[in-house]
Automatic annotation (TrEMBL):
Stored Pfam families: LplA-B_cat
Database matches in CDD domains: LplA
GO cellular component, one term: mitochondrion
GO annotation (BP), single: protein lipoylation
Pathway as given in its UniProt record: Protein modification; protein lipoylation via exogenous pathway; protein N(6)-(lipoyl)lysine from lipoate: step 2/2
Protein name: Uncharacterized protein
Matches recorded under SUPFAM superfamilies: Class II aaRS and biotin synthetases
Alphabetized GO MF terms: lipoyltransferase activity
Organism annotation: Apolygus lucorum
Assigned protein family: Belongs to the LplA family.
């Protein structure tokens, strides 16, 4: 029996290729779409009974953020990592990935992202919003919860950069990897379940910095009140700027090999030993054929209900200069849907005989919130005549 795949999923199979024979070759050289396909049982020798821990490096063949998040989720839910730890390396086409408890309208200009073709995704782990493109490497470390250690994993990454390229990254308080005391090269988040866990992090190799900045710009017109997790912006640097030898291929190979040779066992793993069974990295095709049910998970990650509907409830306002002062339109949004709308008129301005705060019943009620919801309310208001109160009107309004 090969490792956990059998015990957990009966049918997960992997296209498996040895991608680095000898030390000189590029990580991905020799890998073709039609590389020999084999089940894990064909690749890995049968494990001997007892407490043996082995490790694998998987590389996702997909660049679709929703597919990769689904793959991660599938592995987390279906594998048993007790005697097999896995590192998954994955990259995405341009996207912003917000944390599980975040508000996308706080974090980014949602409409701008859409116009630029940058996807917006929500992950299952907590923390802030990060930008991905193929120059960003995502590294997921899967272990049983009992062996979960962010520090151990980040040490592997730091050690790789030290040994291979003479860099001295440090792990700061929030477990970012930073260089020169301030420049972030990696952000971290994690998910812990009853028995399984993963810690995942980014590595900025050579992302389009201008796109990173532009994709994390906010919509300055929206004023949002919410309890959602806020991101912690930091100055960032690409590893390729620190050492020209750091290419994506070279980094993936170095990180993968450092992972394979690092002992994950701890003092509490009495009677265990770590064995090396895998001779190379395994290319993973995250398709329905290999991971039954993955398409449904992918569709859930891509759905409006998950990306926007999961936003913690919030209050969002826009201010309008109407000549006599600032008018404010406010909406309460729950599960991404507009629950109620009110307008706050500036002092001394009336709408008919109404002043101050006015509850509105509008066509946006119970609809999905978008910044364009404000345009609809604005339009509806424009059909009403606002006027400045004369002192007589003020007295009347006060009596009403
Ligand atoms: N790709 C990437 N890597 C590192 N730092 C980034 C990146 N993109 C943006 N940033 C910077 O980090 C802050 C947000 O930092 P903050 O600390 O708020 O959030 C994080 O770091 C979350 C990391 C999540 C990692 C997951 C791994 C797989 S899927 S995403 C942002 O405002 C930018 O200044």
């Amino acid at each position: 029996m090969a490792f956990a795949i059998q015990s957990a999923s009966k049918c997960a199979k992997f296209t498996s290729v040895l991608v680095r024979q000898g030390s000189g070759g590029s990580l991905l050289s020799g890998v073709t779409k039609h590389a020999a396909m084999a089940t894990s049982a064909d690749v890995l020798p049968p494990s001997t009974p007892g407490k043996e821990l082995s490790k694998s490096v998987f590389i996702s063949q997909s660049r679709d953020v929703f597919t990769n998040l689904a793959l991660e989720d599938w592995m987390y839910k279906n594998f048993d990592f007790t005697d097999h730890h896995i590192m998954l390396l994955w990259r995405n086409d341009p996207c912003v990935v917000v944390g599980r408890h975040q508000n996308p309208w706080v974090e980014v200009d949602v409409d701008l992202l859409e116009r630029k073709g940058v996807k917006l995704a929500r992950r299952n782990s907590g923390g802030g919003s990060v930008y991905h493109d193929p120059g960003n490497l995502n590294v997921s470390f899967f272990t049983p919860k009992a062996r979960y250690s962010r520090k151990h994993n980040l040490d592997i990454l730091a050690k790789t950069l030290e040994k291979e390229w003479n860099l001295s990254p440090e792990i700061n308080k929030k477990e970012d990897l930073i260089v020169d005391k301030q420049y972030k090269i990696s952000g971290t988040a994690s998910r812990l379940g009853r028995s399984n866990s993963y810690h995942h992090c980014t590595l900025l190799v050579n992302v389009e910095k201008a796109n990173l900045r532009a994709s994390l710009l906010k919509n300055e017109h929206l004023h949002i009140n919410s309890t959602a997790t806020a991101s912690v912006p930091s100055p960032t640097v690409n590893l390729s700027e620190l050492h020209p030898g750091i290419t994506m291929d070279a980094l993936m190979a170095a990180v993968g090999w450092q992972y394979m040779k690092t002992d994950d066992l701890t003092k509490s793993d009495k009677g265990w030993r770590q064995v090396q069974k895998q001779k190379g990295f395994q290319m993973v095709n995250p398709s329905e054929e290999w991971f039954p049910g993955i398409q449904k998970i992918r569709d859930e990650f891509a759905s409006w209900e998950w990306r926007y509907g999961k936003t913690p409830k919030f209050e969002v306002s826009r201010n309008y200069d109407i000549g006599w002062g600032l008018m404010q339109i406010t909406m309460n949004v729950e599960s991404g849907l507009v629950k109620d709308v009110h307008v706050e008129l500036p002092e001394g301005v009336a709408w008919g005989r109404m002043t101050g705060r006015i509850e509105l019943s509008t066509s946006v009620a119970n609809q999905r919130f978008t910044p364009a919801s404000f345009l609809l309310v604005e339009k509806a208001l424009k059909t009403q005549k606002l006027h400045s109160l004369h002192s007589d009107d003020r007295r009347q309004a006060a009596r009403a």
